[in-house]
Amino acid sequence: MSxxxxxxxxxxxxxxxxARTFSAAEVVDATYARIDAxxxxxxxxxxxTPELAREAAxxxxxxxxxxxxxxxxxxxxxxxxxxxxxxxxxxTCSSKILEGFKSPYDCTAVRRLLNAGALPIGKxxxxxxxxxxxxxxxxFGPTHNPWDLERVPGxxxxxxxxxxxxxxxxxxxxxxxxGSIRQPGALTGxxxxxxxxxxxxxxxxxxxxxxxxxxxxxxxxVEDAALVLNAISGHDDMDATxxxxxxxxxxxxxxxxxxxxxxxxxxxMLELEGCAAEVRSATEASVKLLEGLCAEVGxxxxxxxxxxxxxxxxxxxxxxxxxxxxxxxxxxxxxVAEPSDVLDLYMRSRAxxxxxxxxRRIMLGTYALSAGYYDAYYGTAQKTRTLITREFExxxxxxxVLITPTSPTVAFKIGERAEDPLAMYLxxxxxxxxxxxxxxxxxIPCAKCGTSGLPIGVQVIGKHFDEATMLQVAAALEGALAxxxxxxxxxxxxxxx
Amino acid sequence: MAxxxxxxxxxxxxxxxxxxxxxxxxxxxxxxxxxxxxxFGGEPNTRVCPVCLGLPGAxxxxxxxxxxxTVLAGLALNCEIxxxxxxxxxxxxxPDMPKxxxxxxxxxxxxxxxxxxxxxxxxxxxxxxxxxxEPYATRIGVTRIxxxxxxxKMIHVGxxxxxxxxxxxxxxxxxxAGTPLMELVSEPDIRTPEEARRFAQKLxxxxxxxxxxxxxxxxxxxxxxxxxxxxxxxxxxxxxxxEIKNMNSFKALHDALAFEIVRQxxxxxxxxxxxxxxxxxxxxxxxxxxxRSKEQAHDYRYFPEPDMVPFEFTPEWIDAIRVRxxxxxxxxxxxxxxxxxxxxSDARSLSEDVEFSAYxxxxxxxxxxxxxxxxANWALGDLSAYLNAGPVALADAxxxxxxxxxxxxxxxxxxxxxxxxxxxxxxxxxxxxAPGAIIELKGMKQVSDTDAIEAAVDRVIAxxxxxxxxxxxxxxxxxxxxxxxxxxxxxxxxxPALVNETLVRKLG
Lengths: 497, 508
Ligand SMILES: [Zn+2]
Description:
The complex is a heterodimer of chains A (497) and B (508).
Chain A: H1 10-18, H2 24-42, E1 45-48, H3 50-66, E2 77-81, H4 108-115, E3 119-124, H5 158-165, E4 171-176, H6 182-188, E5 191-194, E6 214-219, H7 222-232, E7 262-266, H8 267-270, H9 277-292, E8 296-300, H10 308-323, H11 342-353, H12 356-368, H13 375-398, E9 401-405, H14 421-425, H15 432-437, E10 441-448, E11 455-461, H16 467-481
Parallel strand pairs in A: 2-3, 2-4, 7-8, 7-9
Antiparallel strand pairs in A: 1-3, 4-6, 5-6, 5-10, 9-11, 10-11
Helix pairs in contact in A: 2-3, 10-12, 10-13
Chain B: H1 2-12, E1 13-24, H2 64-76, E2 84-85, E3 88-91, E4 101-104, E5 114-120, E6 136-149, E7 153-157, E8 169-173, E9 180-186, H3 193-210, E10 222-232, E11 242-247, H4 250-269, E12 277-282, E13 287-293, E14 303-304, E15 311-312, H5 315-322, H6 329-340, H7 344-351, H8 354-367, H9 372-389, H10 401-412, H11 418-431, H12 435-442, H13 450-463, H14 465-472, H15 479-489, H16 496-507
Parallel strand pairs in B: 11-12
Antiparallel strand pairs in B: 1-9, 1-10, 2-15, 3-4, 3-14, 5-6, 6-9, 7-8, 10-11, 12-13
Helix pairs in contact in B: 1-4, 3-4, 6-7, 7-9, 8-9, 8-10, 10-11, 13-15, 13-16, 15-16
The site of zinc ion has 8 residues of chain B, from loops.
């Protein structure tokens, strides 16, 4: 038998194994062969886990041999962002400060995906502690966009995005605090979604901003993303912010179309200065297409959401400064040699262990929470957050889903924004308001840029816990667009390691 | 020394004292935010998990039983229960704190304003020179009660007596990390060391009655810190306060505050000024000393804990906790006085401890209210002496409430004398046999048969003509001697009342 694992969907892989067209072990071999071919150029992974993958594949093949029914993601090669714990692997968060750290416990979402039959292929590169929108802020070097190796894949879940885009895994998990799944999804031409806050347990994903973080999937199709969401959703006793909402089968309504659905185009966001013309026109074209499918399309403005970026850069760093306090060199990770006392141990371990963007966020957040500044910064940001949430609630009284671009631009060059944090922060202007409001959003590829050929993403925003309708719209658009999002062949070099 | 000078100092100065009481909720099955058990001691770092070790990615999930216990304590102390409350993060770096922040409560604690009434009598009442040394009752305000997590413990190696100074390295034991810790802050309504002691003692009794903690000051499951300032009598402005730590017993609490009052008075009398600082009570040297002067206002950067949702207690939920409030010692004491006719002091002694009062009530239920007084005497007398003397706890004592009730009934119906009963009690405590069986076995039945008593009295009168003559000549105090002779004649089994009565009649 011969098959190209780099293009197969998760469902096709599972069905192929179930039909004994190929075995899970063959899927593993093909996966690592593909990785051998392209990973050297892309650098999507911090760690590969062939032993774990083969072990998991062995269990799937034994089930096939025994004639047992296969779980929904049986034999599906999967990547995990390197801020998610998996026993037997390192959790680095792409930071030196977690040097040598191996978690003794599993992240709930990872465990659920593995229980659904997924094969753990490796841990994906990211911006250090998820601080960034380009995956350049990694202690282990940047990830390259498979569409153009000179360009970033977006971030912070850039490795998870690139691994799916480059055909190294069928699906992957990322985490999204301000757009860290959706923005790299847009820049790499993958389907990338952030579920409603509380839909997926955060237990075992290293926290960036606890009130904003959410785990979600990358896939090459809306259906695959829905399959992953099925597997990872639901209440977890280990996360007090995970909810007990019922979890529907998110694949069940994907084919229901958009006829009669009310779709709101967030007009003022689309008109935002800094939104590239090709991004704007691609978004308009998607809306037209949906209209053609008999959706009821209208415009809406979300002026308060334009303050989202400012609120986010208070709340995110504030929570991060607290969440990252534990990396102190006492119990795990990097500890400075020969500290003179405990304060010296703390200060030098952290100064050596954290990269510059992490230090910047910790300082921003510490400042925002300081006595005398708390009300002006953190207090105001929280009020803004409430207003943004209300603004969305009002919009959702008129619409079933909302549409915006995912990223104001296509993938930018490595190094282009590295020295300009503010320009980098603008990458997430469309995605951040959803995190502040706790809403679900999915980015799907909607066009290739006429000049560069780079992918452009469109963001569909759903109501709280209504990922189903959001994915239904995304699937309809995906079907109508029928884009081939296989990246162009790029010059391959063997992995150096 | 300081204690001796306290009365003189208190003539001129009034102390203003507020207490902070940390109580570990030791009776809960698990820690504050994880499933690890709550116990004292043990091999270091054996009762830990990703959550209480603060491993990357671990999240806190609040222990509902701890929240309920705190609200229960709030209700017992007449506190307002907040309809909306939440946890905050208190941030500072210390190696015994795994996350480098403590999950605590800030401006939205579970329990707001409440109070605790205390009574002061005996020598302690004399400290209130303004009240004239009479026994008195007073109300101490409770500012708030909140819940937080305890820290781990540092072990300093290489220095003297495990202190950090001079140590060459330190180890951390996280067994205690994450233990639910309830913090009560009192209003500065306390005026004397004795009131502070009574407040802490009564609070401990209530918490023991609620069953939320073992409240051991020695093991540190109840820790009391004091804030204290003094001012000239009549002055309304508050003086500069100091905070006193390491008061590991009620006596230490009293003595440390007494020392501090005298120390502050000496400073002021010499024209000095009180420095706002934290001071350490050295129980051996019997003095407080500077632990750390007020740091340049530590900024804990409190902010709402984003890993948990806020708490919204409905009136129905609060009522459901309220019905779990057990009878508290004060109410029980009143009931013992009212229903059993006990003296207030006996009633208090019997009502304080949950198990002891339950034991007593069980015995009364069996023997009847009419025997409550003798039962109280036995419970507070021989039973308490027995429990205090030995290693046996009440729950393991061989003397059951039924046996004590039976014993008191047997005394009441005159079968044995009180003196015999003491022997029976000792035997019961030793063997666990019922009193009836012991009396049977030892042939201890008290003789109330008047014929046998008359015969014995006649024999004693006949055998001691000289003493009979003296008695009849007016030396009536000899009656005791005669009773003793008759009892000996009857091998101790005569009914003493009947013996006495018969002797008086025949000698008279
Ligand atoms: Zn634990």
